[in-house]
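Structure, all two chains, one model.
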Amino acid sequence: MRKLRALWRRLCGIFEARQVDREFVAELESHLQMHIEDNLLAGMSPEEARRQALIRLGGVEQTRQAYRERQTLPWIEPLWQDIRFGLRMLRKSPAFTAIAVMTLALGIGANTAIFSIVNGVLLNPLPFPHPEQLVVLHESKPNFEFGAISYPNFQDWQKNNHTFSSMAISDGYYFSLTGTGVAEQLDGQFMTSDFFETLGVKPMLGRTFTQAEEQPGAEPVVLISEGLWKRKFETSPDVLHRRISLEGRSYAIIGVIPASFHLAVRTLRSRDVYVPMGQWRNPSLTNRGAGMGMRGIARLRPGVSVEQANADMARVSQNLADAFPDVDKGIRAKLVPLKEQMVGDIRPFLLMLMAAVGFVLLIACVNVASLMLARATGRMREFAVRTALGASRRRMILQLFTESLLLATVAGGLGLMLSVWGTHVGLKLLPESLPRTEEIGLDLRVLLFTMTISLLAGTLFGLMPALKISQADPHTALKEGGRGVSGTRHRAQSVFVIAEMAIALVLLVGAGLMVRSLKRLWSVDPGFNPRNVLTFGYTLPPSMLNGNPDAIRAAYRNFDDELAATHGVEAVSQSWGGMPMGGDDDAMFWLDGQPKPANTDGMFGTLIYNVGPDYLKAMGIPLQRGRFFTAHDDEKSPLVGVIDDVFAKKYFPGQDPIGKRIVLEDHSRTMEIVGVVGHVKQWGLDADDAHPLRVQLYTVWMQTPDDFVRLAPSGIDAVVRYTGSLTNVSDAIRRSIEQMSREQILYDSHTMESTISDSLAERRFAMILLGAFAALALLLAGIGLYGVIAYLVGQRAQEIGIRMALGAQRMDVVRMVLWEGTRLALMGVTIGIAAGLSLTRLMTKMIFGVSATDPLTFSGVAIVLMLVAIAACYFPARKAARVDPMQALRSE
Amino acid sequence: MSGDKADVWQGTLALMVLKTLEAMGPLHGYGIARRIEQTSGDLLSLNYGTLYPALLKLEQEGAISSEWGTSENNRKARFYSLTRAGRKQLQKETRDWEQATAILALFLSPAREA
């Protein structure tokens, strides 16, 4: 206890050392005075009295030293001294400290953030049990490698495969929820019964579907999300005895799916309501040739590889093709591992990002190393003096180490803050298709890694000169005035600067190519005029669903009239099926006059847009030949269609397509082509040209077969061209729809401009990030060059002074210093261009309309870099020109 | 220093200081040193410089406390006094010391008749 107390007091003693020492000096002084007085009384002379008192004390300094050693812990005091000294040194050169700290912090922060995200997306396992067994199912067709699966085919796959423990298909659907307050549109999912079992997701309440509940005609049951449970049922546990009304039908709630379930792969998504497939009143459901957008998920049996499953499914597909040659010929099951499906598209982008960040970390390390080196070398003389005065080598290295560590600690703290913030922001910007964002957090291992790397860089290079000088003879070092090893140092620093410049150039070229791609993309004509176009989905009252087709058509005509009369609306049209850059729909056809092909393999595919007469006006698509639809093209008049110029060129080359006929596979409807319009970039500004399915067919919405018209009340899209402010028009439309019926729901409203902008979001994200990193790299490289040149000027002040004394002009000095810097920059640029030419080839997937070796980008970037280099050298050069020869010579 | 004077034994200085403070009450460093010399009948040669770290150690251990005051000659000086813990420590160490010297005395005294 006593010992502990003493230890504690000694620890505290570190912080009050100076104060205590002052007091002790006073105490000693009073002691000596008293002793001297006594000695005088004893008859000594004043000198002798003082001498005797000092002898008996044993020396003032020795006593003070003994007292100090007792006062604190002897081994901790030098450490504390080092820390205080280090802090003082850092404070004394604020520019150096700020640059070093910021460089390190940015390096640590940016790297940790990006690595955490990329690591979380690319490397973490999916949040499902045994995720390696999960594959996504598609149906590959002549036109689509990853096409939708038809329900009858799926049922046969399920029955006949030997390699899967379970499989399920699912498709998104908007349900109108009525009867619980305001009517609203719910995101829902039709699914076969094993969906959640396959994924391994367990309901938090209740149960999932049984096989019997999947069958058509079964009692309607529904699973709801935890979110809906909270929102509509206040998390009441008796929810399992409640019912909800979807599409006007009453469903019994049998379970609640936890909010932790998150999926967004094609049409397989986490939603608010999940309904068994059999409840879907869509006549296409039992059509073996109709996919309707459904995709599947399947779980491999333990120990079964994807290759084995592929072989198994090839056999199943072949059997089906033999059994149903008219629809299943050429159709195959396509398996993609879930992880690959999720990450596949974004992998090159993320890898590019990692490369960019890695480069920035490299520059940061190089910069810090170079700074530490410059600084330590500048202090050679100081160390030489201290060695001469008897400081031990160990002691000096320890002190430098403490300084580096101090710097690193401050930078590390700042870097940690940056990385937390960066991870947070980065996750917000991450595309939604990566569904595991909520579990990605700051990765501590990554933080540790980047910190260690940057700290090592800082300390190692900071220590190097100390190791060198302490080995050297202090006598020589002192004579050389601290310039003993400047040759080596200079070489090392030059290499650093050249490397930094080269890396910055590579990053800048990458960013430049992205900017040019995006600019090219923005100037691509989408084939329609996206300005002032609003699209939204809407439903008719649930009572109309599956009702009389004529009544439904009348309701839509009424809707069109009401909307067209709304203030600010210039043109309005229904749109069912495809929506440019939104959803797509396709149909099979053959040319009239040819025999009906035996199966879909012999037919042609086309994108199909089911629209109203004002669609062209609303979308601003140019009419090239013939006419577009009118109000007279209705359910009673002959079927007509309009094609785009790509269709015309492909199937009617060198002919006039007007008056030609085609037969649609669906209902074997024959229609006459009455017009040709411009091609619309359905697959996005960048991807459309390369897409295999580009031909487009427009059909008249009012001529849609009755069985499909019956389904329309559950929701179709409208396209509106408006004038004036978007807010005013949106409000007016909302009011018009509410006036027609309170049971109608308007949803998912957005402008076509935002659709185009969204289609470029990932590219823009990549460009912004790469641009930010390139700017950072440029800044760091500029600082690095500035540091080296400024240091050089300081070191060579005497030489410059001599030159000027010998008649060199100020301009000569400026030129000399500038040349020193630009020479390094030029070498860096040359190396950077060589590296860039080979590295940017890896980016071809990310760029559009420019070559990966675009000379304009390369030369532009090189010029920018040289300008920055000259600017970085200019300030030290000006300083050099101001050197006073007298002053410089005298200081020797 | 005269050669016939004994140096202070290791570890006994603290005990002497405590005993002096118990006997004299609050006292400054110089006073303590002189008092110890006087008590030993000037047989002990005390290096005054070693006294102060010892005082500091005792203070860190909480056996004594100190404050600035005025000496008998109207001089500013730091006065040390015994704390409650110090008094207890003194009692314990006195007991230990007496025991130790008693045992040693047994060894060193002329052998008794068996």
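Residues 1 and 45 of chain B are 8 Å apart (CA to CA).
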